[in-house]
Amino acid sequence: MTTYDGVPGLVETTGSHGETTLVVDAARIVEACTYLREELGFNFLSDLTPTDYLGWGSRGVSGYIGTPAGRDMHGPGTQGLARVPDAKPKRFAVNYHALRLADDPVRVRLQAWLDDGEEIDSVVPVWPTADWFEREAWDMFGIVFRGHPNLVRILMEDDWEGHPLRKDYPIGGEPVRFSGAE
Amino acid sequence: MSVIENRPKIYEGSRIPSPIPTAVLVDPEKHALEDILTINFGPNHPSTHGVLRLVVDLDGEMVAGISAVIGYLHTGFEKTMEQKTWWKCITYPERIDYVSFQVNELAFVLAIEKLLGIEVPRKATWMRMCLSELTRIHSHLVWLGTSALELGAISMFWYTFDDRDTTLDLFEMVCGTRMHTRYFQAGGLAEDIPEGFYAQAREWCKKMPKAIDEYEAILDRNAIWLKRTKGIGLLSADDAIALGQSGPVLRASGVNWDLRKNMPYLAYDEVSFDVPVFPEGDVYARYRVHMEEMRESVRIVSQCLDRLEEMRGEPWIADDRKVVLPPREELHTSMESLIHHFKIVTEGYMVPEGEVYQCVESPRGEFGVYVVSDGGPKPWRVKFRAPSFVALQATATCMTDAAIADMIAIVGSLDGVMGEVDR
């Protein structure tokens, strides 16, 4: 059984669905990742991805079907949310899915919380595979990874405006380039 | 055969260049001498497996610098899925990697089931395994045919696509469609397994190992194939792990790692199969891994068929009316069934609040799904950990000291499917 008590900057450890989540202080993320790799043997980064929790648990965000003037899924008589989900500490969660690729494999999720505009240190020196993951996170969420060797857009075009996976980026919200109006 | 022996042997340790591990950069001073030719490889080149663009700096025939540019096939699957109900979302993962459709669907369905905490009947588990392995063979056949085609062995393409066709016939028989089946549902399978499937699948199982032997006979004694694959695109075990490689690329670098064996899901711990591992770390080793994996997959399929035939008449989907569509025939007689059907189709089912990361061994490696639910009928966030996306990061390391002609073999051997890379 792996114990995570020694992880630098550890705020809390939670477990659900057979998975362990370590919430760590965003300022000490590189220390925590280095500790995981060096001391606990997590040599493999499976995934790195942020989640935007803007509007989490409020009306009309999820659990919602129909037009803005239509049905309210939070109201009685529908299958709406059974309960309002627990509030999140900040807007963005950056999730690091690390794996101990060895005979005794273990997975762990590292979670760091950021507000809009806050920056976080890059973990490319710890796990080189984080390179493109962090570029994608910047591209899609606009989170700046300090010290990343080449933090430019990866999936969207270089001159794209906005960060599409943010919750305040509307679907169908991109400008129409060839409308025929000109 | 002297050329082969002069090729570099696998190296130990790491040669990931810094500061950018995913690109090889040319010294600007060297650029100024105007001996370096910068060319664009792709995005519209038939051997890029889609729309990959590589910016290559050439020093004569040798590659001096390389960086991959992706995103040409970005379609915003993850954003779209946030707007769809969970059960409509099941169709999306199949389409991001259109070659390993069934395995991707499996990962997403397993993630939903993990959040729902729903019990899946054993018949569904075994059928999922059976179809996953068929998908693996289908994917490897496509890989083998196209990779050989790119190196000039055009006949391989016709042979493998013929066998791919009979594999897809099995999917058509079970699911009604040849690809993008949407056969796995949260809770089990969409339909019962048709009676004729077993006989046809058994015939296929008998034929397949012989077909794989024939492919090997064509390629393994082909001097051109050997010269263009042996000692090319070297990746050490350390580098493979550091770069997050998984699947055949990792196993061809000598790392004995397969999620089906090391962290079993479904019922992979109940079937017997071997994990092929080759230490050479070159394109040829990756080819060998693909070939052996197809043989092992045929073994798993026939074991699944044995078990499935004993389960005739058993339920194929969980009996949970809040999640699973009611049986079609009940809709004519039961009001409750009609209401449930209507609710699930229009509003979707509610998935309890939580976040899970579910990964499976796809033909290309670790395919992971990270989902967050807020308790409503739509996912809050879906993220795919695409093995091809990660595999392409290794292009630069593999291309160290390579010639321009090797690039085709190396990029092909990393087996990137651009739909999955760009999502």
Structure characterization notes:
The complex is a heterodimer of chains A (182) and B (423). Chain A has helices at residues 29-38, 130-141, and strands at residues 10-16, 19-24, 44-52, 92-99, 107-114, 119-121, 144-146. Chain A is of the alpha/beta class and 182 residues long. Chain A has a domain at 10-119: NADH:ubiquinone oxidoreductase Nqo5 subunit (Beta Polymerase, domain 2), CATH 3.30.460.80. In chain A, the strands form two sheets. A five-stranded mixed sheet of chain A has the order 1-2-5-4-3, with helices on one face. Chain A has a two-stranded parallel sheet with strand order 6-7. In chain A, strand 4 and strand 5 (107-114) form a beta hairpin. Chain A starts with 9 loop residues before the first strand and ends in a 36-residue tail after the last strand. Chain B has 423 residues and is an alpha+beta fold. Chain B has a single domain (77-422), classed as Cytochrome-c3 Hydrogenase, chain B. Chain B is built from 19 helices and nine strands. Chain B has a four-stranded antiparallel sheet with strand order 1-4-3-2. A three-stranded antiparallel sheet of chain B has the order 7-8-9. Chain B has a two-stranded antiparallel ribbon with strand order 5-6. In chain B, helix 6 runs antiparallel to helix 7, helix 7 packs antiparallel against helix 8 (154-175) and helix 7 packs antiparallel against helix 14 (283-310). The radius of gyration of chain B is 23 Å and the shape is globular. The two termini of chain B are 42 Å apart. The relative contact order of chain B is 0.19. The mean pLDDT of chain B is 87. At the A-B interface, strand 3 and helix 2 of A face helix 3, strand 7, strand 8, strand 9 and helix 16 of B.
